[in-house]
Amino acid sequence: MEHTFTKTIIKIIKKRFKDNAEDVYQKSELLKYINYKTKSATKGSKARSSFANLYAIYILIEDYINKGFDKKKGYKNYKGAEFSKLFIRQRELPFGSKLQNHALNNRMNSEFQKYFPASDYIPILRNLNNNRYWINENLLKITIAKKTFNIARVINEIVDDYIKTKRGSFERFIASCLELQKMGKAQSSTVQKFIKSLLEPNVDARLFEIVSYSILRSNYRDQKIYWGFEKSKIREEHLKLYKTGRTNANDGGIDFVMKPLGRFFQVTETLDVKKYFLDIDKIEHFPITFVIKTELSEQNIISLLRKKAEQLYSVKDIVDKYMLSIEEILNIPKLNNIFDNCVKKGNLKEILDEIIIQSKVEFNYQDY
């Protein structure tokens, strides 16, 4: 697989291994995996970044290099890196402040095996008894004509360059938002077009969640209900949507919560019925609205989920119970319609302002 950033990868490999660069790359499954995971480098802020799996590799190789094992023997006798230190380190890296432990524990290995099912090795080794971790040194040592090349430093140099490239794209994204913020009503059509470009299937999951939240927050705040515990004390209250944490954190939480109705919202880009039912299970079948990064119709989504559910579960009552827990489906066309209505109400500036606020928090803009 070759993409724009592949040239940078090859350039870094050639800088270190000269004439052997091409052979090293062709023989290295790990370098090919890194190549795949960095395909979004030059696609701008809207493309998925894949930092979690890359950082799992990066911090283990960093530990390997810091201990000098790229230049000496004895890694097989190393007691391993402590999970707590690795966890802290990955959160110190750019865009890593809210990363969870999934990539370190299994996700990275699982994905690697999907790409290289015939491989004899998995990248991350761990001892569950004492929470110690190692990078698989067999994937770092490439033998060409009886000569062994260690690619540890090359891999981390590639990831460093990828981080630099992605950071630049996010800085440009924030700058574009701030520039649009200054335009005011005179350029409202430009602002609308920009925001709608963030509601597309290929947009980075974090940006999609941020924009979805900003639009829905604006939409619901114009709606009000009348409620109370006594007839004589009924009160008027506008609906308020709250984000419950960082975007795309894979932390098992619910993404948005609405007050005072107590509605739950979960943002997703998958149509994996197991993921939906897991979300339903963790809130004990409390009704949940799914905000889905797809242009499929609501009817098609429901039909697809039911069909997959029926294949997974043979009992109709179980399938019905899960499906009834889906309160509403908000797909891309529906979000666009909601956005158009918000614009008609004069809420465009509010939505853009919220996108900027949430993006600065998400991308640690204050740290740049």
Fold and architecture overview:
The protein is of the alpha+beta class and 368 residues long. It folds into two domains: 6-165, no CATH class; 198-367. Helices cover 51% and strands 13% of the residues. It has 14 helices and twelve strands. The protein has helices at 6-17, 21-27, 29-37, 51-66, 83-92, 102-115, 152-183, 188-196, 205-221, 273-282, 298-312, 316-324, 332-344, 348-362; strands spanning 81-82, 124-127, 132-135, 141-144, 147-150, 224-227, 235-238, 240-243, 256-259, 264-268, 288-292, 326-330. It has a five-stranded mixed β-sheet with strand order 8-9-10-11-12, with helices on both faces. It has a three-stranded antiparallel β-sheet with strand order 1-3-2. Strands 4-5 form a two-stranded antiparallel sheet. A hairpin with a 7-residue loop joins strand 6 and strand 7 (235-238). Helix 1 packs across helix 2 (21-27) and helix 7 (152-183) runs antiparallel to helix 14 (348-362). The longest helix has 32 residues, at 152-183. The protein is globular. The model is unreliable at 41-47 (pLDDT under 50).
